[in-house]
What we know:
Elements lengths: L2 H35 L1 H10 L2 H16 L8 H20 L1 H19 L6 H11 L4 H15 L5 H19 L10
Helix pairs in contact: 1-2, 1-3, 2-3, 3-6, 4-5, 4-8, 5-7, 5-8, 6-7, 7-8
Amino acid sequence: MNHGVVVAILIVCFVVIAVLAFFVVRMRRSQRLRTRFGPEYDRVVSEAGGVREAEGVLEFREKRRERFSIRPLPPADRTTYRAKWDDVQSRFVDDPKQAVGIADQLVNEVMRARGYPMSDFDQRAADISVDHPVVVENYRAAHNIALRHDRGQADTEDLRRAMVHYRALFEDLLDDRHITRKGA
């Protein structure tokens, strides 16, 4: 075989290996993000208009989240927050509208106590999606119902669903297992 043919074959082999490696890395990245974000992955893909764009958004969220100092709640604080939640739920019977507003405030209070930054709603939802990807959609749904309520477009059943959604996130926020540690 002539030297030029051998070099060409080696170059082609190198290119094929490089292309395969690229696709394997992309598949692993996608699988890691899909596993980490669960249903949030699909929502972001749909919203971003493509997998590559969505994965960039999700990786940005992870990097932003790494800068936060998310901490567990001391047992006494968890007990206090649970008592506050029980109070909010009992208020629902007599004043569902007020109870939903208080539930929203209580969820925000727990987020703040855990160390999440309290910027606008969309950013808060994006931030908690890294640690709470399954229930972040509950937060969005509850928030949307609260906004509809402010416009007079939500009935008592809607408000009940908002409370259920807020409760799911509230319970998840109290659970320390969702703290992502650096290097873990």
